[in-house]
Specification:
By secondary structure, this protein is of the alpha+beta class. 25% of the residues lie in helices and 24% in strands.
C-alpha cells in the first residue's frame, strides 16, 4: 500500500513538473506569431503615417491644402519659433551667382533671392515634398512652381521657361521640376527662389548658401524676435557680394540696425563653431550620411582621415551619425 502511495505521489509530482514546461513550449510557439503580428501592425502604422505626410505635408502647421495661389498658401499663424530640418536638401540650381538679395528693392519688397541661370538650365526640388501650385503669372512669377515640404517650408521657383511637374505630384529632393527661363516680370533669365513658412517669406540666405552649394546647418531655428536682424546678417554673408558661408568672426547683432519695415523675416544662427571655412580657403566638399555609414568608412571613401573629418565638422570620433547628416570632407 505504501509503495502505491509513493508511486502515485511521484506521478503527481512528475505531472506538475511537466505542465509548466508544456506551458512554456506553448508560449514559445506563440511568440513568433505575436512578433509577426506586431511587425505587420508596425508596417501598416508606418504606411499610414507616410500616407498622411504625403497627403498634406506639414499638416501640423497648415490647416488646409489648396492649389489656388501663392498669396493663399497658408491660413495658419506664423509660430513664434520653429525649427526647420534642413537635412536631405538639394540645391535648386548649380549656379553660385546671386544677382539680387532678399528685402526692399525698387520701392517694393523682394521676397526671395534671384540666382543667375540660363534658359534651359535644370531647376530641382530643394527637399522632398508635394507640388501645390503649377501656374503662369504674366505680371509676376511667370511660369512658377510651389512645393510644400514636411519640414514646414514652402519653396517657390519662378520665371521658368518650362514646368516639369504637376499639381499634387510627390517629388523628392533633386527631382527636376522645371527649366530656367525669363518669363513673367523679369528683365533677364534667372531663378527667383523663395522660402516661406506659414505664408511668410523668409530670407533663403538664412538657410541656403549658393556660393558653397550648401545649407547653413542640419537645421535652422526661426524666431520672430531675432529674424529681421539675422536676415540682414545673412544677406551680408551669403547675398550679392557676400563671401559665402558663415562668418568666422563674432557678429554683434545689436549693432545691426533694424530694417525700416519690421516685417518678419528669418534668423541666421551664428553658431559658436563655424560650420564651414572662409572663401579664402579651399572649397569644401560635402557628404550626405547614408544608413550604416561610419566616420571611418566615409573617410576611406573620400581619401581623408577621421581626424580631419572631426576637425572640419566640429565633432568627435565617437559622435553618433544620423542618416541625412551633411559632413564636410575636404
Amino acid at each position: 500500500m505504501l509503495k502505491k502511495v509513493k508511486k502515485i505521489a511521484l506521478l503527481a509530482i512528475s505531472a506538475l513538473a511537466v505542465m509548466p514546461a508544456a506551458g512554456q513550449d506553448l508560449l514559445a510557439n506563440q511568440a513568433p506569431v505575436d512578433n509577426k503580428m506586431r511587425a505587420v501592425d508596425s508596417i501598416q502604422l508606418q504606411q499610414l503615417i507616410e500616407n498622411e505626410v504625403w497627403e498634406s505635408p506639414a499638416a501640423n502647421l497648415y490647416r488646409d491644402w489648396n492649389n489656388v495661389s501663392v498669396s493663399r498658401m497658408a491660413t495658419s499663424q506664423l509660430p513664434d519659433s520653429f525649427r526647420i530640418d534642413l537635412r536631405g536638401f538639394c540645391m535648386p540650381t548649380d549656379s553660385r551667382k546671386i544677382t539680387s538679395n532678399f528685402g526692399s528693392r525698387w520701392g517694393r519688397q523682394h521676397k526671395g533671392l534671384d540666382i543667375k541661370v540660363y534658359v534651359g538650365d535644370t531647376i530641382r526640388a530643394a527637399f522632398n515634398g508635394k507640388v501645390r501650385i503649377v501656374r503662369y503669372e504674366a505680371k509676376g512669377f511667370g511660369k512658377y512652381v510651389v512645393i510644400r515640404h514636411p519640414n514646414g517650408l514652402e519653396t517657390i521657383y519662378g520665371h521658368m521657361s518650362k514646368q516639369l511637374v504637376a499639381e499634387n505630384q510627390e517629388v523628392h529632393a533633386g527631382d527636376p521640376i522645371g527649366l530656367g527661363g525669363n518669363t513673367g516680370r523679369s528683365t533677364g533669365s534667372h531663378l527667383h527662389f523663395e522660402t516661406r513658412l506659414c505664408g511668410t517669406a523668409l530670407n533663403p540666405a538664412l538657410m541656403f548658401d549658393f556660393y558653397n552649394q550648401d545649407v547653413v546647418g542640419d537645421s535652422y531655428m526661426f524666431r520672430k524676435s531675432t529674424y529681421n536682424r539675422e536676415s540682414l546678417v545673412a544677406s551680408r554673408l551669403r547675398g550679392v557680394g557676400g563671401t559665402g558661408g558663415e562668418s568666422t568672426e563674432t557678429i554683434d547683432l545689436s549693432e545691426v540696425p533694424e530694417p525700416a519695415k519690421a516685417e518678419p523675416v528669418a534668423q541666421v544662427t551664428t553658431n559658436d563653431q563655424p560650420r564651414r571655412q572662409s572663401r579664402q580657403q579651399s572649397s569644401l566638399c560635402n557628404h550626405k550620411v547614408q544608413r550604416g555609414e561610419t566616420l571611418y568608412a566615409i573617410a576611406r571613401k573620400h581619401g581623408t582621415t577621421v581626424q580631419k573629418l572631426c576637425s572640419l565638422n566640429g565633432i568627435r570620433q565617437n559622435t553618433v551619425l544620423h542618416v541625412g547628416q551633411i559632413l564636410k570632407y575636404n
